[in-house]
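[READ THE FOLD]
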Amino acid sequence: MRIEILGRPKVITDDGAVLPVTGTKPALLAALLVLWEGRPVGTPLIREFLWGDGAPASGAANIQTYVWRIRRILRRATPGGDARLAYESGAYRLGLAPGECDFLEVVDLRAAAARALCEEDLVRALELFHAALRLWRGDPLPAAGASSSLTLLGESRRTAEIRLTLHEGRLATALALGRHQGTVVELRGLLAEHPLRERLHQLLMCALCLEGDPGAALRAYRDMSLRLRAERGAGPGEGLRRAHRSLLADGSVCPRETLRAVVPQRSAPGLRPLPTGR
């Protein structure tokens, strides 16, 4: 059995059949249970996640219906699969083994890439970043933008951050390996979506230098500095300032230094932090 939430949520049976998780609310609940990585999710949090501040009076009964629908799919996927979705002390918990979920694989691959960087195995790290991004076939929480739920918005931002850091890790590792072809175009595309992301600008400066255009790197820094002061009232952070000083000193931004600044070379956490106050 395998559960996939990166894209349209579905369960893949032991014999390879695909069982879609239909309905917006059941799909959201399945995603939430996966995103909490085996930790119990209380029913008050589920209510807020599914409906925000507009939960219906029938919310508790609706949740039970959604759970029943998910359990029915899990039972069809593998013998005893419904028991994977357990209820205890007012909370639901979805138990998954390694390799049974695309999102959990991404988490493991990201941690493995960080370990490879610690070991100076850049080729292996790049392969792992690529593998993680190949699994990311879509937004696990596409309904977040239309919801009043703070929990749903928070989880959506967290998953978006994971995906973005995977791109940053992949690009920084590629630049450190001297593989800069096409990176400027890709970085400009990412910056169109995240214009105030300083790590992306640092990568862009590095990529422009590798392409032999330090003048463009200086202009990129100047433009980012002006934009940060206009929109945040503060200048660039230390990472960008260090890249700028290097550029002024010798006309380049060191790819290895950029990699260390953009991707901390230590083991990435596997599980999400244990929630508090819920």
Residues 267-278 have pLDDT under 50 and may be disordered. The radius of gyration is 22 Å.
